[in-house]
Specification:
mainly alpha, 434 Repressor (Amino-terminal Domain), 2 domains, two-stranded antiparallel ribbon, 2 strands
Length: 162
């Protein structure tokens, strides 16, 4: 089954806790234009007629998932790491403020604080990327459940190593 590239996610290597970003058709086309990649080169890579590429570039034909993947790999169009929506220092301040509101003084070197700081940053990126999350309790609950699952799987793997 073929899918539109809008549902094509690119996972970044490295931090397994990082939320993968989406490379939309619009972003893919924008990057192809910015890098001045010729339609003829795209057509040759995808083994398509140049008129089909013109239709893609004009938004008259969808970019299929396998086409988006091949374009991304061949022309190195991967999503560049984004600056977090909030800095690590601001996220740390939010965690500390929340703890103090409950009468808890979090130790500066507590690994749990670092986990919460990373989760605040991930949440900030999530709502920056998906505007629906700003209004949808369901979206946010799903995101938070995902963070909890990731945290518990990390806790389980850490416990096995001890």
């Amino acid at each position: 089954m073929k899918q539109d590239v809008a549902s094509f996610s690119i996972a970044r290597p490295g931090d397994s806790r990082q939320i993968a970003t989406m490379l939309s058709s619009d972003k893919l086309l924008k990057r192809l234009r910015e890098r001045e990649i010729r339609n003829a080169d795209i057509a040759r890579l995808l083994e398509l007629d140049p008129s089909t590429i013109t239709q893609m570039m004009n938004g008259k034909r969808r970019i299929l998932l396998d086409e988006g993947k091949r374009l991304t790999e061949a022309f190195s169009l991967e999503d560049e790491p984004e600056t977090p929506a909030i800095s690590r220092d601001v996220a740390r301040l939010l965690v500390r403020h929340g703890a103090l509101a409950f009468g808890i003084e979090p130790p500066a070197d507590d690994a749990r604080v670092d986990v919460l700081v990373s989760e605040f940053q991930a949440f900030a990126r999530f709502i920056a990327v998906d505007p629906r999350a700003r209004e949808s309790v369901d979206h946010v609950e799903t995101f938070l459940r995902t963070l909890e699952l990731m945290r518990s799987s990390l806790d389980t793997s850490s416990a096995k190593r001890v």
